[in-house]
Design goal:
Elements (H helix, E strand, L loop, with lengths): L1 H23 L10 H14 L6 E11 L2 H14 L7 E6 L2 E9 L2 H11 L7 E8 L5
Antiparallel strand pairs: 1-3, 1-4, 2-3
Length: 138
């Protein structure tokens, strides 16, 4: 019984693969695009090219300080440490604090991986949901 099922499966695979090979020998491929698919792709393209578009991503806050000199000094250190991990390292000023953010990830797991890599140098670092990221940060 088991051998006959194998034989039947092998026969079906051979038959259908030979059918597809014969169909592909013509060299002509006809693609019919559905209107709703085109409409969805155009809508997505329009969203991606908005200038003020913001994404909700996961980032790591490495430093929160009132000292601008310390923030600029630490950002150089962060860029050296995260050269292979993320290209997004920046500092922001929200009165009265300077903040260093690293990474812009779709998943929290990726942000936690970066945090684990940097926790020795920045013990106060935290993972947070960044709602001000731009598509160019990804």
């Amino acid at each position: 019984m088991y051998c006959s099922n194998k034989f039947y499966l092998a026969f079906c695979l051979f038959f259908f693969s030979s059918f597809f090979l014969m169909a592909q020998q013509d060299g002509i491929l006809h693609v019919t695009e559905e209107y709703s698919v085109r409409q969805l792709l155009d809508h997505r393209k329009a969203l991606n090219f908005q200038k003020d578009r913001k994404l909700k991503v996961w980032s790591v806050q490495l430093l929160l300080s009132r000292d601008k000199y310390l923030a600029t000094k630490k950002i150089i250190e962060v860029k050296k440490r995260t050269k292979n991990l993320t290209s997004k390292v920046d500092w922001f000023y929200q009165a009265p604090y300077y903040r260093i953010y690293a990474g812009a990830f779709y998943t929290k797991l990726e942000a936690v991986t970066l945090l684990n890599h940097l926790v020795d140098a920045f013990p106060d670092a935290i993972v947070f949901k960044n709602t001000e990221a731009k598509p160019s940060d990804m």
